[in-house]
Amino acid sequence: MGLRRSPARTHRCAGGRGHAPLPARAASHRARHQWGVPGLRSPRARARAAHGAHHPPRAPTDPPLRAARRAAPRRRLPGRALHLRRGVPGGVPVAGECRARAAHRRARVRRAARPLRDRRGERDRQGTVKTGRAPPSGMPGGRPPRSARDCILLWVVPVPRAGYAQRPFPARRGVEMTIQRNSLCAALLVSAACQSPAEHAAAADESVYALIEARRAALVGEAAPFEITPAPDSLRQRILRGEPAGMDGLGLVECLEIAAENSREVQTRRESLYLTALDLTLERWRLGWIGGVTGEAGADGTLGEGGEASGGVSPSLSRLLGTGAQIVAGIGLTAARSIGLGGEWTADSSLALSVTQPLMRGAGRRIVEEPLTQAERDLVYEVRSFERFRRTFAVDIAGSYYRLLQQQDAVANEEANIETVRQIRLRNEALADAGRLSAIQVDQASQDELRSANRLLDTRASLGLALDDFKLTLGLPIATDIGLDAAEFDGLREAGLGEIGVRVDDALAFALGHRLDFMTSLEQVADAGRRGELAADALRAGLDVSLSASSTSAPDRPGKHEADDVAWVASLGFDLPVDRLPERNAYRSQQIALEATRRAHEQLEDVIRVGLRDTLRSARSTREGHEINENAVALAERRVANAGMNLEAGRASTRDILEAQTALLEAQNAATRSLIDFTLARLALYRDMELLIVDEEGIDVDETLFEDWSETRR
User: Fold this and answer.
1) CA–CA separation, 205 vs 375, rounded Å?
2) Is the pLDDT of residue 688 over 70?
3) In which element (H, E) is residue 289 found?
4) What gap in Å lies between CA 391 and CA 693, rounded to an integer?
5) DSSP H or E run through 192
6) SS3 of 701, please?
7) Closest CA to 112 of 76, 78, 146
8) Residues 417-426 pLDDT 10s
9) Which of 286, 264, 248 is nearest to 369 (CA)?
10) What pLDDT is attached to residue 53?
11) Of 157, 159, 149, nearest to 51 (Cα)?
């Protein structure tokens, strides 16, 4: 970039001494920028003018100071300043040139303000300010202003002229204070209404848990606390973190607790119940007072003439009444200001109220509150389903637990059998070596030992698979090693078999009156009937009456409303049922759905009857079968003992002792299986009769409830 020094055209540098004449080019440049003198501008000057149109300069100094500066002798611009070569693009002015241009701008302001310097006192006496855009004329030179720099007088010397809106200072102050108060109220309202996602989730949990606990208490009395958030220190999480868990010797109650805490299926049912209660909160909210606050702010305009900024806030309140009437009330506050020329804020407010009441279609509490009614009933149904699931799930856990005990007992029986057969083989081998026994009998014992080893492998494999399935049901990691408490099986044997003194007719009658799923099925028929009534209501004609009123405040007086300025509208609208094909199809579909619901209810009743009859037969047959198997075990034990003594005396063969040992093994396994079958059949019977109680202490039977019912029936 080429630079040059010119003694004839220099400005004063910082710290320089002496004066030099003003450069000719600078003087011509200053002349072209005086008021009313046309002339070409440099690209830099035009850029500054465009910038000034959107950013008005600050007000100059007071008139006395300006007068003092005008009376001061003119100072020559300093010399020996570096200038950028004219016409070099991208040039940056040096310090001397910047000061010269600032001096030129101050001189233009002083010259423009000189004709109006005596109007300061008049403005103070009137106490007025000017708003709005600049007038089309009135500037020195008889032309409109070309930039915001030309309009500086409109900001700092507000002289009353035609075309300007005037407003006394007290009115402006009142508007500004009103805007500030409303802005503060809006800010407080927004800050109070805004909540974090965690706070919203906590509020939802509080309302939903209250609903669920109330419904569960009404259904089953005192119930355990309900929670859907998984515990961070659950058994599964502790095992995954590598902490010792102590999973040996698990009892049935402990397995129920582990399943309730870690089972994925239990968590899914909890979440389903939670979501159903959440839907109920939404329906209740829709029939209450619904408030809201909306607002917007923005600006528009053109690059040459400035624009206008505006903003507004609109609180509203609405409610749907039980009769179907819709009430909507709203308040609006708006404010606007002209930008670019220093306009002031103007504000106003509005009030609105409307009421719409249907008279035919959609009218009546039965129609309007049907979604809420259905949501209430859905929550009751889901609570019943959840309680029914808890009892069924507990029976399933007990069934898996007892089947594992059965398989463990089968493994123990196979291990004892293979050890007995091994002893028989060793004895026969010794006798064969002594020449007292044939090789055939040795081979018989060896072959039976191999079969026993194969059965033991299969039984152990089945036990391992059953353990993995049980861990999956409990929600534990599959790699976890668990062990069951053998004392649970000993307790079943010692308890023996109880009597089942329930008749089929009594069991069926009690179950149909107390089964939770059957009660839900019966009430769902009524729900389908109500939906048909809603579909029939949609076929009617529509007739609505509407009343509305609104009021707008006086300009710049927000909150000031006059009763005479209230506008109201009353209207009556109707919708004749000329073409109702979708509604007709919906009504017919609901009729078919009602019949399908009735058939489903009848089928469930038959399923309950068949299931109870089969459960009673199974319980009684397994009880009798267990007594037979116990006798078979005793007989097999005597047979094994007799065969052993005969074998020692030489009156029995190896085949006899092996057959007696196999019969004992089969009788033992059959006895264990019948005991487990009877225990599970009795649990299933009480489950199907809705007599089970599942709590922290395990599974219990509410026999008192059935006894009281039986006495009442007699």
Assistant:
1) 18
2) yes
3) none
4) 7
5) helix 169-193
6) strand
7) 146
8) 999 999 988 9
9) 286
10) 46
11) 149
